[in-house]
Amino acid sequence: MNLRHLLEIPDLTAAEIQQVLTLSERPVASFGAPLSGQGVALIFEKPSNRTRHSMEMAVVQLGGHPVYTRGEEVGFDTRESVEDITRIMQGYHGVLAARVFHHDVVRRMAAVSAVPIVNMLSDHSHPLQGLADVLTMSQEWGSLADRTVAYVGDFNNVARSLSEACVMLGAHVRLGCPTGFDAPQAELTRIAGLGSGTIAQFVDPSVAVLGASAVHTDTWISMGQESQKAERREIFSAYQVTDTLMAGAAPGAVFMHCLPAYRGNEVAASVIDGPLSRVIQQGHNRMHSARGLLAFLLGARP
Ligand code: CP
Ligand code: NVA
User: Fold this and answer.
1) What is the pLDDT of residue 23?
2) Residue owning the nearest CA to atom 4 of ligand 1
3) How far, in Å, from the CA of 1 to the mean position of ligand 1?
4) Dihedral sign of CA atoms 83, 85, 90, 93 in order
5) What pLDDT is stored for residue 136 in this prediction?
6) Looking at residue 125, what is its pLDDT?
7) The ligand 2 atom nearest the CA atom of 259
C-alpha cells in the first residue's frame, strides 16, 4: 500500500474524496479494527474541542489508542527538530496528526515520515473540516455537483479547504470577502483547476450568496490573530451572516460554520440557532469523516 498523507484536500483525488465520504457513513463495526495495537499521535499547538475529541474517538472506533500531546511538550524546533520528533513517533504510532501554526511543519513531517501524516489545521488549510463540510452537504442534497456554495468572511484555512473540496466535487463556490482578506487571483485560478466546479469572488456578501444552497462562515479572528481583534471586527462588520443575508440565498439554503462561533460577529444568533443551521450535524460529522479518512489512509476502500 502506498503511503498517503492528508496535509490538504488536493492530497486526495475527487474520486478518493467520494470514497472517504462513503467510508464515513459505513457502520463502525464494518471496519474491523485497522488500528488494533497501534497508537495515533495527536499533537496540538493550538486549542481544540471538535478536532481533538472527534479524532480521539475515531481512533478508538478503529481499535487504536490516541495519544494527545500539547505542542509545547514536544516543542517543534524548540525542544527538538520536527524531523527528529517525527522519526521517533513513527516508531510508536500508525498515524501522526498535528495542529500547527506553520503549515511547513506538517510538510516537513510528511517529508520524513513512514506513516501517514494528518494536518489537524494549519495557517494554510483545515482539510479535516473540509471533509466534514462536504459530508454534511452531501447528506443534505445527495450530491454537491452543480450546487452553489457561498462562504462569507476571511479567506482563511477553513475557506481554502472548503473551496477546494467543493470545486473538486463539482460545486460552484462564491466567496464574499473584504478586500485585503480575500483570495489572491493565483489562488482562485489554482482552485478552479482542481475540478469540474467553479470559484468566483465578490466584495459584496449579498452578491456572494446569490443562488447558494449553503452559506458558510468562520470566525473573523483565527487562532493566533487575537491582537488584530479590534481592527478585524471593524473591517468585517458588514460581513455578518444575518437573516436578511440568508434570505438572499437560494430557497431552502442551509447555514454552516466550522465552530467555534462568535454570535453577533460573523453570525447572528437567530441564524446559527435557527432552523436553517446545520452546525451541530456538521460538528458531529467531524468524527464520522475523521474515521472515514483514517480508515482510507490505512488502506480501507468502499
Ligand atoms: N472546527 C474545529 O476545528 O474546531 P476545534 O478548533 O474545536 O477543533
Ligand atoms: N479559522 C479558524 C478555524 C477554527 C476551527 C482558526 O484557524 O482559528
Assistant:
1) 98
2) 50
3) 31
4) negative
5) 99
6) 98
7) 5
Contact call for residues 140 and 214 (beta carbons, < 8 A): yes
Kindly state whether residues 183 and 104 are assigned to the same domain: no
Q: Could you tell me the residue range of the domain that residue 65 belongs to? A: 32-125
Q: Are 85 and 110 in contact (CB under 8 A)?
A: no
Ligand 2 neighbour 138 (Cβ under 6 A): no
Q: How many domains does one find in the chain?
A: 2
150 CA → ligand 2 middle, Å: 18
Q: Of the ligands numbered here, which is closest to the C-alpha atom of 130?
A: 1
Ordered strands of the 117-119 beta sheet: 65-70, 39-44, 93-99, 117-119
pLDDT means per 10 residues in the chain (302 residues)? 95 98 98 97 98 98 98 98 98 98 98 98 99 99 98 98 99 98 98 98 98 99 97 98 98 98 98 98 98 98 97
DSSP structural state of residue 220 = S
> Do residue 184 and residue 111 come from a single domain?
no
Clarify whether residues 107 and 135 are in a common domain.
no
- Which pLDDT belongs to residue 1? 75
Pocket test for ligand 1, best of 44, 50, 119 (most atoms within 8 A of CB): 50
Q: Is residue 242 part of a domain?
A: yes
Residues 120 and 138 in one domain: no
User: Ligand 2 atom closest to Cα of 158?
Assistant: 1
